[in-house]
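Reading a protein record of the kind used here takes only a little practice. These numbers are not coordinates but entries in a learned vocabulary of local backbone shapes. Here is one such record, which you should read through line by line.
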Amino acid sequence: MIQIDALSAFSDNYIWLLRDPASHRCAVVDPGDADPVQRWLDEHPEWSLTDILVTHHHHDHTGGVAALKARTGARVAGPAGETIPALDQPLEDGARLQVLGLDLRVLLVPGHTAGHIAFAHEAPAQPLLFCGDTLFAGGCGRLFEGTPEQMHASLKRLAALAQDTQVYCAHEYTLSNLRFARAVEPENAALAARFDAVSAQRERHEITLPSTLAMEKATNPFLRVGETSIKEKAEQWAGATLASEAAVFAAIRRWKDKF
């Protein structure tokens, strides 16, 4: 079983550290800063960094890649459609990647950036999703390069994975996302309970990740745009009739940007 830890970076980024205890090999996902990873390696000299996985080109996800590659010689794998430092293995949609014994499927999920990818491990024993800045706990990423239609389709694709999939996104945005979610869906009891639980976690300075897809589908408005109550709230905010789920998504994404 792969062990997964969070290395904090900047103000709210998480660099995911994957560890195989049997081989003492490890991998990292989206190392925007080399220092937290290098400190961990210095403190655990028996471990070898063999893989660096990148979901998209933003500097807070790639800034440490070159330094870590230079230090360890780790393989760098990332989206073929974006410029990634020190990239060894460009990944197209549907590619398979073997990392620490995990068989990862690459999913192209444009929206936040044009070539953003996610890594999915779909084995029932340990279903995992490393989704960068596409799907967040309680929310989704901003649209910097893609369209609302693209992001809506990307989120639907991720939501179709197994419901017990552990969701490892890249930022500690959960509490602020849930504040917005409550404005969109104030009568959602599961959301209210999650908000209370996450509020208590953050008061204790605890990490709120990973989430699960089941939890996201129950409480994340960006995965619930087919719900009549959310459509009505979005139309109320937009002051217009919204004819499709993608249009509802676009409206609540604009709402979130101004929230």
